[in-house]
Amino acid sequence: MKKQIHLALDLSWTQVETQWRIPGSLVGPHYPEVGLFEDVARLAEKGGFDMIFFGDGTGVPDTWGGGIEDAVTYGVAWPRMDMSPWITAMSRVTSHLGFGLTYASTFMHPFYTARLLNSLDHITNGRMAFNVVTSQRRSDFANFGYDELVDHGTRYERLEEFVDVCRALWDSVAADAFIWDAKTGKVADPAKVKAINHDGRFFKVKGPLNVMRSPQGHPVILQAGGSPRGTKAAAHVADHVFGLTKSIPLMQKQRAELDEAIRLEGKDPDSVGIIWSIRAIIGETEAEARAMKESLIAGVSREAVGVWLSHNSGYDMAQLPAYFSLAELQRRIIEANASPVGFVGLLAQKYGMDAEISRDEFFQHGLEAATGYATALAGTAVQVADRMEEMFEETGSRGGFMISLSQAAPRQALLNMVDYLVPELQRRGRYRRTYEGRTLRENLAS
Ligand SMILES: Cc1cc2nc3c(=O)[nH]c(=O)nc-3n(C[C@H](O)[C@H](O)[C@H](O)COP(=O)(O)O)c2cc1C
User: Fold this and answer.
1) Is residue 411 part of a domain?
2) 283 CB under 6 A from ligand 1?
3) Cα–Cα distance, 110 to 327 (Å, whole number)
4) Which of the four, 29, 50, 290, 387, has the lowest number of CB atoms within 10 Å?
5) What is the pLDDT of residues 357-378, one digit of tens each?
6) Which residue minimizes the CA distance to atom 19 of ligand 1?
7) Does residue 11 line the site of ligand 1, with CB under 6 A?
8) What burial class does residue 151 get, using C-beta atoms within 10 Å of its C-beta: 0-12 exposed, 13-18 middle, 19+ buried?
């Protein structure tokens, strides 16, 4: 059997990519009604998707121009709800579809998070994934008491300890701890419920978790850092990695670095997939798909791009001079403690650190990065499937794709995946016809 491609539906994007402006989009008076999300969940399950995934952020972006005005005006990275209650509703109208929920270990407490994920894993009957991120956004930090970003390395040390504590808490109550013996009146066996007595650099947690073990025990852990330090953390904590699509050589480099880091952890790299973030714009003809892509790009405002880039790099791009060196900009971003491998880092790899670039060129590249259209696969279902198969094979045939769709995208955009792309992947023997497992972990393993 050919290696199977896994598919997740990434509903993290908000407005910068302008899908909400297409006729038929789900915004307006009905958004964010829970029924809309239930509808999307049913369709995703019809398409055999492994999971619906929600990235997260908690601040309205305020790095661009030092204020929130343009972010608010153009709806960049907001509104964002805490999706955990929505997942509960979506799980009630589906039976196999999984759900990925994001929280930042930089701000959350592992006891609360482990308990919440345990509850959701019960409600969904073993279909939860926890995407643990460090966050690099000033407005998120500002809501949790920080004036500046915590330094990059410290964020990852905290993330590793955070997940270690969650895992210990999930193991603190054995699967057979509860006996419910009506004759003796004994509810649970104390020998199977243990304190964890964790006393680390960031957290002090006694435990045990005051809950029953959930169907998966440990929800699937996803992690999305792309820097060398982020890769090391992913190797330590992640069951699967969420990766940014780049050129194939850069994706291969990330895969090789991750494999090496996983081996150093004493684990098997074949068990860890990378789920690459992609945009897919599917049309009946290539020309139709390309026209759709062009019209989406044309609708993006420069301010929205500036907000997005500044939010994700910790540097106010409104301050850029007419010409500047990428090296200088990258130095300032690293100084601000954002990521060394973000958009500017990628641009520097492409053009060389010494390259001078004009503000207009920079924003043109930025537009494509901020919307994901730079790497969007636009074409017929056959063409998109060709490209997906190629990327999958070239990067080690482990994992799959996180297909990005705005929460406000028209229903038709999802139907195009379910009715055209999925059958095309199935015809090639690359994609499930029925769910193999009951839990998300089982489905991702095949
Ligand atoms: C594919 C991908 C998805 C991410 N999703 C989120 C997210 O939903 N919320 C968030 O706060 N940060 C998110 N991040 C940011 C990471 O948590 C991290 O802060 C950032 O990538 C910097 O780490 P790095 O230098 O190791 O890449 C994401 C990063 C990547 C690459």
Assistant:
1) yes
2) no
3) 37
4) 29
5) 999 999 998 998 888 887 899 9
6) 135
7) no
8) exposed
Q: What is the pTM of this model?
A: 0.95
At residue 406, the pLDDT reads 84
Residue bearing the CA closest to ligand 1, atom 3:
224
Does residue 76 fall inside a structural domain? yes
The first and second tokens of residue 87, run together, are: 């997942």
CA of 224 relative to ligand 1 center, distance in Å: 5
Count: domains in the chain: 1
Structural domain of 194: 6-288+375-445
Percent of the chain with pLDDT over 90: 79
* Span 1-26, pLDDT tens digits: 899 999 999 999 888 888 888 888 87
Give, using CA atoms, the residue closest to atom 23 of ligand 1.
225
In order, the DSSP letters of 321-358 are -SEEEHHHHHHHHHHTT--TTSHHHHHHHHH-TT-EEE
C-alpha 296 to ligand 1 mean position (Å)? 24
Alpha helices in 62-151, H assignment, sequence order: 69-74, 84-91, 110-123, 138-142
Vertex 339, ends 228 and 387: CA angle to 5°?
75
**CATH number for 206:** 3.20.20.30
CB 251 within 8 A of CB 276: yes
**Element of type H or E holding 106:** none
In tens, the pLDDT along 106-130 reads 999 999 999 999 999 999 999 999 9
Instruction: Give the three-class secondary structure for 24.
Output: coil
Q: What is the Cα–Cα distance from 351 to 39, expressed in whole angstroms? A: 44
Which amino acid, 259?
D
Ligand 1 pocket, residue 224 CB under 6 Å:
yes
Domain contains 132: yes
pLDDT in tens, 136-177: 999 999 999 999 999 999 999 999 999 999 999 999 999 999
**Percent of the chain residues topping a pLDDT of 70:** 100
Query: Is 57 inside any structural domain?
Result: yes
DSSP string, 300-313: --HHHHHHHHHHHH
Ligand 1 binding pocket mutation candidate from 103, 134, 157 (most atoms within 8 A of CB): 134
Q: What whole-number distance in Å separates Cα of residue 98 and Cα of residue 52? A: 6
Going by pLDDT thresholds of 50, 70 and 90, the confidence category of residue 29 is: low
Interval between CA 218 and ligand 1 midpoint (Å): 22
Angle 369-373-379 (CA atoms, 0-180°, nearest 5)? 160
pLDDT tens by residue, 236-294: 999 999 999 989 999 999 999 999 999 999 999 999 999 999 999 999 999 999 999 99
For residue 96, give the 3-state DSSP assignment. Answer: coil
Place of tokens 């789900």: 26
